[in-house]
Structure formats: C-alpha cells, structure tokens
Design goal:
- 34% of the residues lie in helices and 15% in strands.
- It is built from 17 helices and 14 strands.
- It is of the alpha/beta class.
Length: 417
Amino acid sequence: MSGVFVYQFLMENAGLSRKQINVVFITDEGYAMPTAVAITSLKCNRRPEASYCVYVLCKDVVDDSKQRIKKIKDPLFEVKCIDAELPAELQQYRKSDGDIHTTPTSLLKFLIPDYLSGVDMALYLDSDVLIQKNIEELYATDIENEYAAVVKDIISDNKDFYKSIDYPHKYYFNSGMILLNLKKIREDDIQSRLIEYRRNGKNQFVDQDAFNVVFAENVKYVSYRYNFLNKYLEWRDIEYLSKFFGEPVPADADAAISAVAILHFGSAEKPWKYQMGKLSSIYSEYYKMSPYGNEPLKLIDYQVEKFKSEMARPCVEFIFPFEQVPKDSRVVLYGAGKIGVQYYKQIKALDYCTIVAWTDRKKIQGCVDIDTALQQDFDYVVITTMDKISADEITGNLTRRGVDEEKIVYSNANVMF
C-alpha cells in the first residue's frame, strides 16, 4: 500500500485527527530566508490535493521577512507567522561545546504545544532542511501512545557523549525532525520538564539533549529518510550507515542524497553560505523558487573560511583578500615583504589561485621586475602593503602601464590585531 493510501486510510481510522497536515518551523531574522526555502521545498513536493497548515514561530523577525514567508501560501497550503518570545531564563543558552551555529531561538521548540494550543499533532522541522519528497507517510505514523516519531542519530555509537550527559537509553535522536503528539505532551506537562532539564540537566546541544532525556523511550523510530544529515556521508561509510539504520542506504553519494525525503544540513556548513558542490545546486533550485529567489546567493569557499579562522591567531597578521579574488584566478603579487610572504603561503596552502608572477620594487630572489610581471596573462594584481599612500602610488603606476583599475586589488581590512 503506498504512503498516500496509508495516509488516507489513517485519516479515517486513526485515533488522532489528521485531516490537515500541520508543520511547524522556528526562526529568527537570521534564518528567515532558509526557513522560506524549506517551506518552498515542502510545498513543491506535496500532493496537491492535501491540505497543509504551516506555522512559523518568529522571534525578532522583521515584517518584510514575515511577508515574504507568507507569500508561499496557496488555498490548500496555509502559512501562518506567529510572533514568539523565549522566557528570560532561557535566552542565554548556547551549545556547551561552543558551536554557536545554533542559537537559543531553538528552545522555542519546548513551547510549540503552547503556541499551537488548538493543534493535537504537528511535524516540527528545522529551517536548515530541504523536503525532497511527499511527507504524508511520515505524518501518518501512529504515535497515539508516544510523544513523538523521530530518527536515530549516529551519535548513538559515541559512548563518551553518552557519559557526558549521563544518557541511559540505547538510541539518541536528532531533533531537526520531530513528529509531535502535542495532545499527549500537554497531558503529561512535558513542556515544564523540558525547560527544567535545559536549566538544570547536562547539555551538549541547545535543545536536543532535553528532548532525548525527557522523551526517553516514549518515541517511535522511523526511517532515516525522514531526517538524513548530509554530513553522515562524511562521518561514516555506507556499510556502517545501512547497518545502523537497519535499511539499505544507496552506495552512491548522489543517490543517497536523492533518496531521502528530508535532507538536513545539520552542521556549520550551510548551502546558502558555502560552495558545496551538488548540494549547493540542489539548494539553489529551491532557493530560486522561494520569495528570495530574485536575490543571487553569494557562496563562499568553506575551506577558505576554515583556513581564515585558523589564520586568526597571533602568529598570523595578514589574511589574503579572498573576498575580492575569486578562486582559480591568475594573480600577480606586488610586494615580497612580510604581507606578500604570508599571502603567498596562504595561496599555496589552499591551492586557491595561480601566482603567475611575484614582483617587488627591490631585487629579491624569486621575484621578477614589474614589466616582466605585467607581460603575464593575469586576472588581478594584488598589492601587498599596509600603507595606503604606497598602495595609491603603486595603483597609479600600474594604471599608467595600462592595467585596468578593476584588476587591481588592495585591502587593509584583512589585518589581524
């Protein structure tokens, strides 16, 4: 029996009312755009005859962003933005491991039963997901006697993590997708227990540990296809993943990504920020269909960002102007002093671009004179000096020699103090 027919059958026979598919997202202004893209992907892959109501809990989201999100609606796809606030005692928390790509806004998950007071069942989704397939079969999961349906996380094999939060259960789930039995959660006053654990329990993740500890064994595990982190393919091999999830994961990475219904970008590397190959291409297609689609995404190289972060130490004083010089460009380095040497090392370490010539006013081994340098086929001349007056003089000299000013790069904004 197909997922659609299962859903239709359960709508008529399940103990819980499911005539409308309720989906809830949480966002602040920083995640408004990804939230809109996630909702767009949900809309694109639904069954057109199905009725959806999408709730978006908005913390400090500006009116323009809320209006954009609400534009995604149609007659059978309602989108509601609800202004939400965290209790003061919960606003200070972040992940204890220091990874702050998640924020305290995530704790609004604890309050979903209150904000959706008239709703008995809802599918919660993080904003950093793409919904690639119809999710009606997931929504039809019978959880009348459980708090939620979830997908187990591969962190379940990490004994050190379990010890760090005194976690006693066999599996640990990722909270980026939770099918919530809001009726049962309210009846058992689970909201209060979640907040209490977040305040006084052992936490490594913003909200996730609280959900795992408080829900305990009162969850139903569903297919990995409903919350698959792209990073799983880097962290584990296919054989391990297939064994862990108890079902075959396609051996080809592209096929594995295409097979999942909910693709979760659950790390600091996000496809609306960084160049992520095929994943960026997939994300871009939904982005273009979203209310933000007329604004081009400006993706940066994740490895470059990591390198810049590593370089932000006392021993490194100058960072190459990656933002002004595209990857794989042909460059002439002008200047072989301290800055020039650090630029050279960074370019070589990352294999970021091709240095077609290195020149300096002084005769330095490894450098050529300016006339020889400018005879090369280059895209940019990168001036390596901190002194603005010297940089202006070099720029004037280059333009007089016929170099287009748009090809001259100088930046003193990448100085580390």
